[in-house]
Amino acid sequence: MGGGLLKLEPKEAERILVALPQFPQDVLFKHVQTLDVMVRQIPEPAMQKIVDNLILVSQLGLTPSDCTALKRAAECLRMRRMPKAG
What we know:
Blueprint: H1 10-14, H2 25-39, H3 44-57, H4 64-81
């Protein structure tokens, strides 16, 4: 798969957890509209904290420490996939 796309085998994909926040439809629509505007105006790290708090902390009950651990794990995986220089 070109372009660095991660390919998951079916058994691997079955083990992936997906955050499914349970917002009422009108609240979800309001958040999507607000986030759409914000993502164009706020630097990515600040935006990531806002979204983490909105979904992972408020909806799924994770702690800020959990969010930091997930962020570090994602960065670790990203670095493993980067081509080695030299």
